[in-house]
Amino acid sequence: MKGKAIKVPPVPGVATAQLKTLLDAVLPKAGEVAEVERQEGGRGVMQTLQEVESLMAVRRALLPALVRGNQGCGERLRDVLYLDLALDGAVRSSVEASLSLLKAASSSEDPETQAGCLLDLVALCVESVCLTSGSNVEMVMILRDFQASQALASPMKWLRAQAASERLTRELGALSERYLAALQPTATALGDALSLSPESTGIFAEEVVRGSSAAPLAQVVSVLAPTLRQMAGLSSWDVISPASGLAVGRLVVVQALSQVQDMHFQEPTVLLVQHIGGEEDIPEGVVGVLSAVAPDVLCHAAVRARNSSVLLVACSDAEETAAIAGWQDQQVQLQLTQGNTAVEVSPAQGRPDASASASSGDNVASNSGRDLPQMRQREWCGQYAISSIAFDDNTVGAKSLNTLKLRGQLPVWVNLPCSAALPFGAFEAVLQQPQNADPAAAVQKLDGQQRPSPDQLQAVKAALQALQPDAQLQDQVKAAFQQSGLQWDGSNPSWQEMWRATTAVWASKWNVRAVSSMRKAGLQHRHLQMAVLCQPFIPAQYAFVAHTTNPITGNEGEIYIELVQGFGEALVGNFPGSALRAVVSKEALLSSAQDVCSSQSLEEAMSHLPDHAVRVCAYPSKSVALKLPDLVIAAGGATSHVIIFRSDSNGEDLEGYAGAGLFDSVQSMEPMQMVADYSRDLMCYDLHFQRKLLAAIGVVSLRLEQLVGSAQDIEGVIDNHNAVHVVQTRPQV
After folding, report:
1. Which positions ≥6 away from 123 have C-beta within 8 Å?
2. Burial environment of residue 552 by CB neighbours within 10 A (0 to 12, 13 to 18, 19 or more)
3. What is the pLDDT of residue 349?
4. Cβ contacts of 494-503, under 8 Å, gap ≥ 24
5. Which one of the listed residues 264, 275, 300, 525 is annotated catalytic?
6. Residues near 595 by Cβ (< 8 Å), separated by ≥ 6?
7. Contacts for 196 with CB less than 8 Å, ≥ 6 apart
8. Does a cis peptide bond (omega within 30 degrees of 0) precede residue 493?
9. Is the peptide bond before 155 cis (omega within 30 degrees of 0)?
């Protein structure tokens, strides 16, 4: 070699014998030898895995010096950073060069071994992105999820890895959007100032993304995802609402279900949507919904789809979804196959009327000629607030009455929250007072309109936030709370916080989804009355929803449960990602039900329960858990000074009508969105605890069904001391 040799002094604290050993293991594989192996076809997944592991070992060795900054490397931080960047680039190059081999390996004759290698490789790539990226808390949690899955046995290993893969795919998309938002506006502005062509500057941020560590990771995940679903025994389809198993209609492609929930399609329609928020109503005329992302089975939108006999399915295969989108504005047919576990989508001939789709149901058919649910109007009792001892059918709705009727009939380890209420008629009494003339005028202006616009509805809701209470109202609320056992000293939470929550619940009468749903059901919105159920906000370690008849299969012998960390809005509101999903066999619970119900604590009850009663269908993949700040959680396990105000209308729980989630529940203090960490969650790593707790929820659900005499839709929480609380139960629709 010609030229002058450059002698670079070692970096203090970094250039150790250990680092030299690690680099010696990397250098031969990161250069010409590796390239020859690729060209000759003598390289497989295992070789790529070993190479990336060697590179990551060096990056881990550099991490302490990088964290300490210049002080950790004798003011030579720049040199260490350049080395780390080179290693990151080597990881990226190794993975990119092996993509074709990885794709071939995913269809090998030994799928479990190859899937395991792919899983290990993805975990290493995620770790590399974590070491490269700032603000990487979500990616670190994903890394922990993948690492935790590697310690499990099949099939739980693959279910947990599948959940981590879903979470990773979502975060990679968000990461790309953050790059675009941060870089592209500046690139466009500079391009315009320098008179550069938009074609070149318009892809600047996109090219930065492609050159990042996240790009090859996204490609490896796309290879791994179908393999994981196969290993977990899952198809690329999720059936959320099976309806009759068939839907035929014109395909309409939209970004979000919320964009069209208030529309009326004049012919049977199948929607292909990218996003379901969870609170939407199903538009009139829609017979089927195909989502690119699976919503929670027990979110409000899914419940309404089942109530309307609308086929709701999700497809995780992006290529298949893109192919279906190519049939936009054409007639398509959705047909459930393979025992309602898969979906066949095909073009349909002609233009069917409402009767052509077996899933048309009430969503297309006219309301004439069938019995409509009725809302009974009540007279105001003359009190703005009442304690639970005054609850009856004339003052409050089914939500308040259902839990009241259960007192003393459940096992001692199952808790029911104390309750007070602002009864039927209180809202109308407040609205009629002179100081509320403007909000009353806004309501009066909207009355009688058949199809008010979303803007008009929002204007009424905003006007109602200006409601002023009667002088007696605050005193009556305080007295009712004290009589019911609700702790409130009149100042914490402040009366302003209490009144804000109350008016927000009343205003939710004019939610777009509520007005649309009632119109479709033939219900007169002017007959709607809203009581407000007030309860303490239970500090939830977990929140669950249970249906005592499996809503997917209709099997009355199975209880279907979805569970999330923190508060339940993440579930019923369908926050991105999946809840933990499980099915509990009623028959398997019966042998131990007596001992369980006579137990004095949840722990004792769990000791009597069999593991085999529970089948876990999916691990959680939600990125967010809703929790209260620690400072508001009292040592005794109750929330200090936090109250939830629940809608309790005369338009919910009507026979044959799913009113759940149409109206709002509001807390005096909103929970915080925390990054969900499943690596330290007993429900995810302690399989014995997981099955016992799910079985205990199953026993509670079965007992509620037996007491009420019909299938139930139950919401509850497990608090920070592992106590069970049932917060509401209603007939399962």
Report:
1. 143, 146, 147, 150
2. buried
3. 72
4. 497/668, 497/669, 498/643, 498/645, 498/668, 499/469, 500/465, 500/666, 501/643, 501/645, 501/666, 501/667, 501/668, 502/422, 502/532, 502/645, 503/464, 503/465, 503/467
5. 300
6. 608
7. 190
8. yes
9. yes
φ, ψ for residue 336, nearest 5 deg = -70, 140
CA 585 from chain center: how many Å?
Answer: 25
Neighbouring residues of 608: CB distance < 8 A, sequence distance ≥ 6: 592, 595, 596, 599
Our measurement of the distance from residue 509's CA atom to the centroid of its chain's CA atoms, rounded to an integer in Å, reads 25
Cβ atoms of 157 and 177 closer than 8 Å = no
> What Å distances lie between residue 305 and 258, 520, 539, 699, CA to CA?
14, 13, 31, 27
Phi-psi region at 448: left, alpha or beta (left = phi > 0; alpha = psi -120 to 50): left
The interaxial angle of helices 17-26 and 45-68, nearest 10 deg, is: 150
Cα separation of 358 and 245, whole Å?
Answer: 8
Could you tell me which residues are beta bridge partners of residue 237? 315
Distance separating alpha carbons of residues 121 and 165, to the nearest angstrom: 13
Closest CA to 387 of 477, 478, 480: 480
Alpha-helix residue ranges (DSSP H) falling in 540-680: 569-572, 586-597, 602-607
Classify 370 as helix, strand or coil.
coil
**pLDDT at position 636, please?**
42
Spatial distance between the Cα atoms of 228 and 192, rounded to a whole number of angstroms? 46
- What was the pLDDT predicted at 251? 95
Indicate the DSSP class of residue 489.
-
Phi, then psi, of 687 in degrees rounded to 5: -65, -30
Tokens read off for 15: 């250039």
Per-residue pLDDT of 658-679, as tens digits, reads 677 889 999 888 889 999 999 9
What pLDDT does 29 receive? 54
List of the chain residues with pLDDT < 70: 1-4, 28-44, 105-109, 350-373, 489-491, 630-640, 658
For residue 367, what pLDDT is reported? Answer: 44
Distance set, CA 135 to CA 138, 141, 178, 192, 261 (Å): 8, 12, 11, 31, 36
| pLDDT value, residue 372 | 59
192 contacts: CB under 8 Å, gap ≥ 6: 201
What pLDDT score was predicted for residue 31? 45
Paired tokens of 386? 């009442």
Strands (E), 526-653: 530-536, 540-547, 558-565, 580-585, 614-618, 624-627, 643-649
CA distances from 568 to 17, 404, 639 (A): 53, 21, 16
CA atoms lying within 13 Å on the CB side of residue 345:
29
Half-sphere exposure of 95 (CA within 13 A, CB side): 31
C-beta contacts of 589-595 below 8 A and 24+ residues apart? 589/613, 589/695, 589/698, 589/699, 589/702, 593/699, 593/702, 593/703
Q: Which of 531, 514, 732, 536 is nearest to 647 (CA)?
A: 531
Going by the DSSP 8-state scheme, the letter that residue 28 receives in this structure is: T
Give the relative orientation of helices 512-521 and 454-464 as an angle to the nearest 10 degrees: 120
Q: Is 300 noted as a catalytic residue in this protein?
A: yes
Cα–Cα distance, 418 to 563 (Å, whole number): 23
For residue 246, give the H/E element and its range.
Answer: strand 246-256
- Pairwise CA distance, residues 168 & 323, whole Å: 24
Are the C-beta atoms of 424 and 529 separated by less than 8 Å?
yes
Q: What is the pLDDT of residue 630?
A: 63
In the chain, the percentage of residues whose pLDDT exceeds 70 is 90
